[in-house]
Amino acid sequence: MQQSSLRHELHNRWPQAETVSDFEHNLKAVHARIAAACERAGRDPAGVRLLPISKTKPEPTLRMAYAAGCRYFGENKPQEAYRKWEAMQDLSDLRWSVVGHLQTNKAKLVARFATEFQALDSLRVAEALERRLQMEGRSLDVLVQVNTSGEESKFGLPPDNVAAFLRELPAFSALRVRGLMTLAVFSSDAQQVRPCFVRLRELRDRLRQEAPADVSLEELSMGMSGDFEIAIEEGATIVRVGQAIFGARATPDSHYWPSGEK
User: Fold this and answer.
1) Which of 19, 49, 95, 218, by CA, is between 20 and 30 Å from 201?
2) What's 53's domain CATH number?
3) 72 found inside a domain
4) What's the pTM?
5) Which residue range forms the structural domain that includes residue 94?
6) Phi, psi of 48 (to 5 degrees)
């Protein structure tokens, strides 16, 4: 299926959530899908964390999602996420995860508010985050992004480079390495999508034998609204679900993982 046709199908599948009841319904449906995928894989649903992806959605919409039970939001663009964090500081138990590519000049924003950063793929970004986190007196959970699809349009380290990268990370004491993240091929064909998740799980299993002692590889963040059930079957511990909770976005995912940040 062509990407434009697939996007049209997804827009029809996921109407906009406009009330707290809409969010409650959508969250219940997503959790049911998570539970069914876990049952197929012989896994405990408690071992899969749902990360609602709120990118492009305005603050009032996020507040409805919060009222429906969301306590973690994932955002791609640091400036957008920082604005929302500033506006929603009255919600003291709300946590933020940055899941998109980070330029070093935006590290100061992430260091100030984020609980988690899922797209670490360079030592320059690690250095920038470490410096800013030390200034803020904070630490940050991080996941290393791996390009398992081999697509030039996606960020992330080539799988063969991950072991050497992990060996460098203990030098950054403010970064708590928790695992790996990937983006699969954008396709409705499971035979194209599944290998991306298999590669990440197999890479993690190999690296566990040689990773530094203070580098944890427990987390596998993989799977989005259209493919998270396949990701769970292949070992995902975090699934990043936006459109199935919030409704379809006006822009394709490729807009958020371009060759250069917009």
Assistant:
1) 95
2) 3.20.20.10
3) yes
4) 0.91
5) 3-255
6) -120, 120
Per DSSP (E only), the strands in 121-217 are 140-145, 175-181
Domain count within the chain: 1
Q: 114 in a domain, yes or no?
A: yes
- Quick one: three-class SS letters along 18-86? CCHHHHHHHHHHHHHHHHHHHHHHCCCHHHCEEEEECCCCCHHHHHHHHHCCCCEEEECCHHHHHHHHH
Give tens-digit pLDDT for 133-152: 999 999 999 999 999 998 88
Q: Where residue 190 falls among pLDDT bands split at 50, 70, 90?
A: confident
- Sign for the pseudo-dihedral over CA of 149, 49, 10, 53: negative
Is residue 220 included in any domain, yes or no?
yes
- Check residue 94 and give left, alpha or beta (phi > 0: left; psi -120 to 50: alpha): beta
Any domain includes 50: yes
**What letter does residue 188 receive in the DSSP assignment?**
S
Q: Is 186 helix (H, G, I), strand (E, B) or coil?
A: coil
